[in-house]
Amino acid sequence: MSDTSALHTRYDSIEALRAALRAKEVSALELADSALSAAQASSLNAFLHIDPELTRAQARAADAALAAGNAGPLAGIPIAHKDVFVTRGWRTTAASRMLEHYTSPFDATVVQRLAQAGAVSLGKLNCDEFAMGSGNENSAYGPVRNPWDPGCVPGGSSGGSAAAVAAGLAAAATGTDTGGSVRQPAALCGVSGIKPTYGTVSRFGMVAFGSSLDQAGPIARHARDLLELLDVISGFDPRDSTSLEHCDGAPNQPGRVRAGFDAARAAQAAAGAKPLQGLRIGVPTEFFNAGLADDVARAIEAALQHFESLGAARVAVSLPRTSLSIPAYYVIAPAEASSNLSRYDGVRYGHRAAQYRDLAEMVSRSRSEGFGPEVLRRIMVGTYVLSHGYYDAYYLQAQKVRRMIVDDFQQAYAQHCDVIMGPVTPAVAKPLGVNRDDPTADWLADVYTLGVSLAGLPAMSVPCGFGGPQGRLPVGLQIIGDYFSEGRLLAIADCYQQTTDWHQRKPEAQ
To answer: What are the Amidase domain coordinates in residue numbering (predicted)?
Structure first.
């Protein structure tokens, strides 16, 4: 093939890529070279580390497996990893100066499982430092730019992942979701992303932020592409103490998510012209308040009406503690961050200050120099709420509110609905730097995603329209399920995407 420029973008799904590879229309090495060229030429700052030889070695191995007839389900598919998954060969910095030159001696479980499935990694993707942020402006290596408008944020913390997929730099990418960091950037970049039930995907080798909240999830253009990745990375891992052996009685292993998807899609097919007949969609009244922008509200309403046209029924539900998810999260998450980040002391690994007089000053200077402002802010908040005299007043109370938020969701599912739908964000992507003078303003943008994370529920974002100036910035619809319902969520999203084209729209080349 003489022209391989943008070759990887000629196939609109992982399924199409896989068919082309197995039919020998294209090789994994050709796809890798095409994607590497696009990533290196991009001005979005989505990638932090690219090593072409490492990528090509994986592509050659995929081609060999394809030729031998023993290729994995993702053989030759070009993907990339958020820079909080440790990787051999590629640096793992968590977008921080603290880990600027760190290279892990092992792969994270998510990275390992995707590699075993044959996926070809293009490198490491930019993110908010230690995954702390909602706009990808907290990276020590500069912000990622939104492919739809380079003057706007892509969302965070997995902004590099969402931007890379939206711009066609990779077929899919890994992300992490602590308080909405897969769903929110997916929404703002016009792609799809899913956060699975907490504990269903291994956290081993994932740089920790909030241990009771962090969960890995994929970002891709279509729900079916998300299925391809999520089904591979899901599964029990004995190296992760938070990993689940069973999911509502079923073994937590690859194939579980696909089985749920196939069963739901079969039921939809049997329903005929109204594939979602009998599906009850809960719409929380608290999600549609004065804080929701009109353009986002219109796009969400149009999506809900489309689901009704497919046979679903809309029911009003209440999640009365939605507003309390913000203070609860911003007590619990910083407390866990304070504990997790205490390991970066300049002694064992990470940045060490060049000048110091004693051990105490070495630790203090190393941390002050290595961590950025947002990370230092959250460490200070977390240390404060865990300190003597304040633990009961703040941290313990936040955990009680967390339990109440879980109960709110469970009551809605038990009495009223099968899934919950609403906005992912209150507004479309904001301009870069707009909240520079108010560092906590971004926290308010997480109001629709935090409760899901505190409850450990699965949820996803799918494109459903546009808003903002000239109607050119994407809007995402959030679909929230009960525990272990990832397959069903993906099937519902797939049904929507089979009858709409929002997920197929792409930004102009940047």
So the answer is: 39-490
Q: Which of 27, 82, 234, 453 is catalytic?
A: 82
**Candidate list 181, 325, 338, 366, residue with the active-site label:** 181
Q: In Å, what is the CA distance from 326 to each residue of 82, 396, 403?
A: 25, 15, 14
One of 27, 42, 121, 157 is an active-site residue; which one?
157
Supply the DSSP string of 400-457, one letter for each residue. HHHHHHHHHHHHHHHHT-SEEEEESSSSSPPBTTTTTT-TTGGGGGGTTTHHHHHHT-
Range of the structural domain that residue 153 is part of: 7-258
Rounded CA separation 90/51 (Å): 7
Identify whether 313 is part of a domain: no
Q: What are the two backbone dihedrals, phi and then psi, of residue 80, each rounded to the nearest 5 degrees?
A: -150, 160
Helix then strand count (H, E) for the chain reads: 15, 13
Q: pLDDT tens across 336-360, in order?
A: 999 999 999 999 889 999 999 999 9
DSSP code string of 143-181: ---BTTBTTB---SSSHHHHHHHHTTS-SEEEEEESSST
Which CATH number is 241's domain given? 3.90.1300.10
d(CA 196, CA 486): 6
Q: Pairing state of beta strands 120-125 and 78-82?
A: parallel
- Any domain includes 424: no
Is 182 part of a structural domain of the chain?
Answer: yes
End-to-end CA distance of the chain: 25
Query: Is residue 110 situated within a structural domain?
Result: yes
Each residue of 428-444: pLDDT tens digit? 999 999 877 777 778 88
Q: Is 181 a catalytic residue?
A: yes
Q: Is 157 a catalytic residue?
A: yes
Into how many domains does the chain fold?
1
Q: What is the pLDDT of residue 4?
A: 47
| Beta strand 215-220 pairing with 172-177 | antiparallel
Closest CA to 278 of 299, 264, 257, 258: 264
